[in-house]
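Field log, afternoon session.

UNIT: design team B
ACTIVITY: writing a sequence onto a fixed backbone
BACKBONE:
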């Protein structure tokens, strides 16, 4: 009996400290609960993108199938940390969460925005912007109005008071990356010269890989997006390999463009990722009752 009690306590402890199962961050809007159409998702993502371009504040929307038994405040700040919403040095991320099955909503605020969007203001946005639309079964408009309110606040407060004197971090890593640019040009010109002399295929391949690798590294140094860096490295390496007098660059670039155009079926292509912001549990939650019952793929 005593052993069974100890074993039960161990399992309880493991469960208490276990991390929830989080959905994958696939974009600025993650509609796991299936509450939005693709057009609505794109519209909200565009609004979020505009706010980030204007103020660097990163707004992410997520609808969840389930909170897996967690309190939405606990789940929210852990999810925001897991996704690294916001900029690394600014901690300026906002996570809008809707969990219809659990009848909860929340606006999670990053550390860097706590002075600009208080818990009371976040709660007011839920009550005045989100819930009235939800009661009309209009999830999209509720989220849209909330993002619009956030954009108004950060454009007047955050960008004006804080964004004007954001420090530019130029560490050794970026200095080295910038210094490699003239080296890349030299290698590219030298490679082009040797290629024109019709040297061995092995030599062409080695130099092409070096040029592509340097180009990919430079892109990664400034974007920290591995997929884009790899694509750039591959394209540059291919162009470098075929850079001789007989190369039809027009056809080559056209073929590469056609291939890139097949990535995804939308009008635009964007790989979104969190910048590394931190959260401490600031924000506001609310119980939405049964207003969203029957909606989505629950």
């Amino acid at each position: 009996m005593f052993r069974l009690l100890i074993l039960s306590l161990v399992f309880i402890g493991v469960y208490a400290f276990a991390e929830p199962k989080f959905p994958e961050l696939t974009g600025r809007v993650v509609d796991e609960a299936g509450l939005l159409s693709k057009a609505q998702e794109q519209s909200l993502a565009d609004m979020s993108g505009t706010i980030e371009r204007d103020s660097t504040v990163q707004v992410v929307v997520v609808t969840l199938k389930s909170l897996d038994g967690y309190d939405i405040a606990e789940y929210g700040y852990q999810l925001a940390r897991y996704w690294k919403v916001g900029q690394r040095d600014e901690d300026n991320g906002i996570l809008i969460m809707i969990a219809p099955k659990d009848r909860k909503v929340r606006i999670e605020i990053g550390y860097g925005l706590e002075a600009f969007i208080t818990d009371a203001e976040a709660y007011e946005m839920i009550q005045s912007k989100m819930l009235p639309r939800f009661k009309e079964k209009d999830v999209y408009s509720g989220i849209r109005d909330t993002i619009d309110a956030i954009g108004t606040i950060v454009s007047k407060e955050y960008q004006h008071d804080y964004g004007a004197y954001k420090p530019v971090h130029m560490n050794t890593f970026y200095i080295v990356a910038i210094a490699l640019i003239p080296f890349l040009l030299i290698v590219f010109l030298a490679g082009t010269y040797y290629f024109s002399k019709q040297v061995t295929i092995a030599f062409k391949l080695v130099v092409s890989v070096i040029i592509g690798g340097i180009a990919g590294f430079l892109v990664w140094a400034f974007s920290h997006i591995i997929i884009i860096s790899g694509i750039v490295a591959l394209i540059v390496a291919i162009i470098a390999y075929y850079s001789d007098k007989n190369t039809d660059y027009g056809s080559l670039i056209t073929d590469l463009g056609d291939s890139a155009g097949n990535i995804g079926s939308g009008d635009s292509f964007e790989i979104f990722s969190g910048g590394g912001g931190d959260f401490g549990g600031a924000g506001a939650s609310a119980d939405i009752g049964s207003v969203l019952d029957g909606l989505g793929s629950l």
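LOG NOTE: The two ends are 41 Å apart (CA to CA).
NEXT ACTIVITY: expression trials, pending approval
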